[in-house]
Amino acid sequence: MLRLIIIVTLLLASLLTVFKAPTYHLWLLAVLVGEYGILFISITLLALLAGFLPGRYAWQGTVLGTIAIALYLYPMVSAYLIGRNLDGDISHAFPKSQHTLSQSSSTPFSFARLFHQDPEQTQFKTFTYASYADTSLTLDYYRAAVKGKRPCVVVIHGGSWSSGDSRQLPELNTVLSRAGYQVVSINYRLSPKWQSPAPLQDVAAALTYLHQHAEDLQINTTKIVLLGRSAGAQIALLAAYTLKQQGIKGVIDFYGPADMVWGYSLPASKLVMDSRRVMSDYLGGFYPKVPKQYAESSPIEFVNRQTVPTLMIHGANDVLVAYGHSERLRHKLTQNQVPFYWLKLPWATHGFDYHLNGPGGQLSTYTVLRFLTSVLPDNSSLN
Question: Which residue, 251, 175, 173, 177, is CA-closest to 219?
Fold first, then answer.
C-alpha cells in the first residue's frame, strides 16, 4: 500500500509537465519536475522495483508508475525534438546568423548534459553606477574571457518589480562571459517605494555609466544587448524599444509581460500570485485609476519598424506571466517586420531556467548564444 501511495504522489507531481500549477508551492514544484526529471524518474524506478516483492495493488502501482515516467520524460523528448530544428529555425529568423558556438555548446540539447552540474560561478566586480538622494545602485561586472573590447550583455533581474537583485541566477552570466561577452548585471529601484518609470531610468543610467567607463571595462558600446527575466524582461523590452541610446542591438525576453493593459485584464490566480496588486505597486494604482501608466509601461506599444531584433523565451505552463504576452508581442513584431525568434517550451513554467542543464535550460542557453552571434556578428567564441 505504501508503494502505491508513493507512486500516486509521483504521478500527481508528473502531471505538472502538462498542466499548469494551481498554487504557488506547486509552481515551485513544477520548476523542479520540468528541469530535474531525471531525479524524479530515478525515484519512480525505485518505487517500481519494489513491485517485484509480493503485495497488494502491485500491478496498479506498476501501471501508474509507468505513466509517471512517461510524463517525466515528456520535457526531455520535447527538448530533443525542438533542438533538432532549432538551428534551422534561428537561421530562418535571422538570416545573417553565424554559427560560431563553442564545442561544449554545439548541440541545442543533449541527454548526457542532464547529468551535469550548472557551471561554477566566475568572479565579478561590483561598481556603483548611480547615486540618488535616497539610494545608490550597483552593478556586477563579469569580465569576458576574450581580451579586448567586447560586446556587452546587460542583465536585468526579475522579482515582480519588488524583490530580487543582481545576484539572481548568475549561472548564465558565467556562460556568457566565458563565451566572450562582457556581462553586466544591474540592480534597480524596487516597488512599492519606487514606481515606474524609475527602473527604466536606472537602465538608462547604467548604459550611460557603461559608455563613460567603456575603456576600463573593455566594452564595445556599439554592441549592447539587454536581457531580462520576468519583471526584468518588461524593463528590458521597454528600454530596448524606447531608449535611443546608441549601441543597443537586441533584447532577450525571458517570460516577460509585454502588454500590461492586457495582462491586467487576465490576472494570475491569487493562489499563485496577486498579479494585479503587484502591478498596482509598480505602476502607482490599479488600472482604472492610472490607465496611462499601464499603457506607457507596455513594450508592445512602442514596437515599430526601427525596433531592435528580439528573442522571446516562454513556457506554455507559465502561471505567473501568461503565455499570451509573448503571443501578442509576436504579432506586433510580425506586423512591423521586426526580426525575432520565439523559443516555445510546451512543458515549462515560470523560472524554468533555474537549472541550465535541464531541458529548458539547455535550449534557452543555446538559443541565447545563437541570438547573440546573430545581432553581434563580429563576436568570437571560445573553444
Answer: 177
Q: Give the whole-angstrom CA distance, residue 305 versus residue 334.
A: 10
Mean pLDDT for 333-361 is: 97
How far apart CA 365 and CA 251 sit, in angstroms, is 14
Residue 276 clears pLDDT 90, i.e. is over it: yes
Q: Which three cell numbers stand for residue 156?
A: 536585468
| pLDDT value at residue 97 | 55
Query: From residue 134, how far is each of 103, 131, 186, 292 by CA, in Å?
Result: 47, 8, 18, 27
For the chain, strand residue ranges (E) read 125-131, 136-142, 150-156, 182-186, 219-229, 248-254, 310-315, 340-345
Instruction: Please report how many Cα atoms fall inside a 13 Å half-sphere around the Cα of residue 232, on the Cβ side.
Output: 23
pLDDT averaged over every residue in the chain? 93
Within the chain, which residue ranges are assigned CATH 3.40.50.1820? 98-375
Q: Which CA distances in Å does 288 have to 72, 167, 261, 294, 298?
A: 43, 35, 10, 10, 16
Nearest of 103, 48, 81, 90 to residue 371 by alpha carbon: 90
- CA–CA distances in Å: residue 182 to residues 31, 150, 169: 29, 6, 17
| Cα 225 versus chain centre, distance | 14
Which triple of cell numbers denotes residue 87?
A: 538551428
In angstroms, the CA 362 to CA 313 distance is 12
Q: What is the pLDDT of residues 92-134, one digit of tens each?
A: 999 865 555 554 457 999 999 999 988 888 899 999 999 999 9
Cβ(81)–Cβ(362) below 8 Å: no
98-375: CATH number: 3.40.50.1820
Name the grid cell of 230. Answer: 520576468
Residue with cell 501508474: 64
